[in-house]
Design brief:
By secondary structure, the protein is α/β, with parallel strands linked by helices. It has two domains: 240 residues, Phosphoenolpyruvate-binding domains (TIM Barrel); 53 residues. The protein is 41% helix and 14% strand. It has twelve helices and ten strands. The longest helix is centred in the middle third of the chain and has 18 residues. It binds glyoxylic acid and magnesium ion. Magnesium ion binds next to helix 7. The site of glyoxylic acid has 9 residues, from helix 7.
């Protein structure tokens, strides 16, 4: 398993949307923008993405100074191989426009995406898209290069997620924000990401995660799970990460270096699954060729494979390659 940030192309786009912005994003590190020491540390960490946070991890009084810190840090660099993101404040505050203008004018060339929190409708995404376009034009940047990541963090956002997911070609990810979401629906718990005490009939987050995932996939976006705040409880982190990874999520936030290795591992395919996926792709290529009998369905060991198997294998194989995995098996056509 690769310990370093994944550099290769990400998994192929699922059906239904744009494929231009699918980058490896297994681990997404939150870094308070007001803390230069933590920004320095982030440069050394093997995450796929990091975001410098001007929102909730940054107190109102220090936001102006934090914007300057963000611009200086992005321009100084040292984040190679990782997706560079800044989380701005949401549109209901008085800070958003200044966050966007200062950061993109000051460091737009060294920025991959802006993350917009508490998105409740397509209008939030469209407003950010328009503002970005103006700044890109005025600064002579390539128009449309900077992507948008949308955090869904309340009931209104969940209800509007399908329209949010299709609001702009800049949109790259749909992100679950569990802390704000729990507050928004008045969930009876203070432990972010854990099951609320008393709920003993399933996973209290299943409907939310599945709704976000389906909306993301319908429009070719990535789906990212949010933070697990009990940073010393690695078992708890692993348990919640496994749940969203099993559903199909692309990655999860990490708040502490101790969560990174587990996160990268959990959101990569297992070696046996990666090898099997590569075998399916090779075998399917051969069985459907003239040499292999031009068959639509065939047996691979004890398993029947067909076009749908190929699509499933492409997802696992794409994610594995993006994570820097290499195959440990060789498939050969059956003897004539
Ligand atoms: C993240 O922003 C959250 O609210 O969980
Ligand atoms: Mg939040």
């Amino acid at each position: 398993m690769s310990e370093t940030p994944a550099k290769a192309a990400a998994a192929p786009a699922p059906a239904g949307g744009s494929s231009r912005r699918l980058r490896p994003r297994r681990s997404n590190l939150a870094v308070p923008a007001s803390n230069p020491r933590m920004i320095d540390k982030a440069r050394t960490l093997p995450v796929d993405q990091l975001f410098l946070d001007l929102e909730d991890a940054c107190a109102p009084l220090v936001k102006p100074e934090a914007r300057r810190t963000v611009v200086a840090a992005l321009n100084e660099g040292g984040f190679e191989g990782r997706v560079r993101v800044v989380r701005v404040n949401d549109w209901t505050t008085r800070w958003t426009y200044r966050d966007v203008v200062d950061v993109v004018e000051g460091a737009g060339a060294n920025l991959d995406c802006l993350m917009l929190p508490k998105v409740t409708g397509a209008d939030h995404i469209i407003a950010l898209d328009l503002l970005l376009t103006q700044i890109e034009q005025a600064m002579g940047y390539e128009v449309g290069r900077i992507g948008i990541e949308a955090q869904i963090e309340n009931a209104a956002g969940l209800l509007a997620v399908a329209e949010i997911a299709s609001a702009s070609p800049r949109l790259e990810t749909i992100i679950f924000g569990p802390a704000d979401f729990m507050a928004s629906i008045a969930m009876k718990s203070l432990v972010v990401g854990e099951q609320p005490p008393g709920y003993d009939v399933g996973d209290a987050y299943h409907h939310i995660l599945m709704t976000l995932l389906v909306a993301a996939r319908a429009h070719g976006r990535q789906a990212i799970d949010g933070p697990y705040l009990a940073i010393r409880d690695l078992d708890g982190f692993r348990r919640t990460a496994h749940r969203s990874a099993a559903l199909g999520f692309d990655g999860k936030w990490v708040l502490h270096p101790g969560q990174i290795e587990a996160c990268n591992e959990i959101f990569s395919p297992r070696q046996a699954d990666f090898d099997h996926a590569e075998d399916i792709l090779d075998a399917y290529d051969w069985f459907t060729s003239a040499a292999g009998g031009a068959r639509g369905a065939a047996m691979l060991g004890n398993e029947m494979i067909d076009e749908a198997s190929r699509k499933m294998a492409l997802v696992i194989s794409g994610r594995g390659r993006a994570a820097g995995m290499t195959r440990t098996t060789v498939w050969s056509p059956p003897e004539p």
